[in-house]
TrEMBL record:
GO terms for biological process: DNA restriction-modification system. The lineage of its organism: Bacteria, Pseudomonadati, Bacteroidota, Cytophagia, Cytophagales. SUPFAM superfamilies: Restriction endonuclease-like. Residues 144-258 form the Restriction endonuclease type IV Mrr domain. GO terms for molecular function: DNA binding; restriction endodeoxyribonuclease activity. This is Restriction system protein. Gene3D superfamilies: 3.40.1350.10. It comes from Pontibacter chinhatensis. Signal peptide: none annotated. Pfam families: Mrr_cat, Mrr_N.
Length: 285
């Protein structure tokens, strides 16, 4: 089977840099992906080509590209998931991809010598973002094995944990794709009626799903929310925020997994204790 998305991670070094410059020097992962899609003029098929589970090849390979550019000193990222150009990154328009790879390999070799690690580098272990793909995929796979009814109840529990009130799963048929409803209160003053759709899905959710859901929610709610174990196509994302239409919020599989982890729903996080001996403390005792 031929590969649709043909760009390798190192082919994305310069598009990623250009994307961040277009965004004013910083941007979220989603904003960077959208910019890179436009820069490379990707077709819908290319942009939506799946790597594994709910992660596209574009998302996965861009994560590797950002990791290399960060280690090369051109990018930095915050705990909030925002990536930004460093001073060095702002001063560079184009990089030689082979030079970047050689520099990162050299840096890793030096780090291993300092840490006395004989094993070769697995760059994935050096990047929190890349590590996330592994546990997210395992979690999403477990969620996809439950029944659609259980997935709806899981979405209900998730929304309750996130602060929604009066969350109900609808039992009606022919509800236009609405699986549940609830209230969200902002600042303890303003309340919004929200309807949601839960799609335990393999692959990509297209724009037609978003359009149909919007049609069902109009006149019945203030806001709409679609949660899926899959991912949303580029056109679906555009449709969700189309000018002149009620906006719909989207939570894809990776974001769904992040929320489950954050709320410790079906997820246990083990913190590993690291002991560092301060030898100079004893010498100066």
């Amino acid at each position: 089977m031929s590969e649709i998305f043909k760009y390798k991670y190192d082919d994305l070094f310069n598009p990623a840099l250009k994307a961040l410059k277009n965004l004013g020097g910083s941007g979220s992962v989603r904003e960077i992906e959208e910019q890179v899609s436009e820069i490379l003029q990707l077709s819908e098929e290319e942009a939506n080509d799946i790597h594994r589970e709910s992660t596209t090849k574009l998302s996965y390979r861009l994560a590797w590209a950002r990791n290399y550019l960060k280690r090369y000193g051109l990018l930095e990222n915050s705990s909030k998931g925002v990536w930004a150009l460093t001073e060095k990154g702002k001063a560079i328009s184009v990089v030689d991809k082979n030079q970047v790879k050689r520099a990162v390999v050299k840096l890793d070799k030096e780090e291993r010598q300092v840490k006395e690690k004989p094993s070769p580098l697995d760059l994935e272990s050096a990047s929190e973002e890349l590590i996330e793909f592994s546990w997210q995929e395992e979690l999403i796979e477990a969620v996809k094995k439950i029944s659609p009814e259980k997935f709806e109840r899981l979405c209900q529990r998730l929304l309750r944990e996130l602060g929604f009130l009066n969350v109900e799963v609808t039992q009606r048929s022919n509800d236009g794709g609405i699986d549940g409803q609830g209230l969200i209160r902002l600042g303890g003053v303003l309340s919004f009626h929200v309807v949601f759709q839960a799609k335990r899905y393999q692959g990509s959710v297209g724009s037609s799903v978003v359009r149909d859901f919007r049609g069902a929610m109009i006149g019945r709610a203030d806001k709409g929310l679609i949660l899926t174990t899959g991912n949303f196509t580029r056109e679906a994302k555009k449709e969700a925020n189309r000018d002149g239409a009620p906006p719909i919020d989207l939570i894809d599989g990776n974001e769904f997994a992040d929320k489950l982890k954050e709320l410790r729903l079906g997820v246990e996080v083990e913190l590993v204790e690291k002991v560092k001996i301060k030898k100079d403390w004893f010498e100066n005792f």
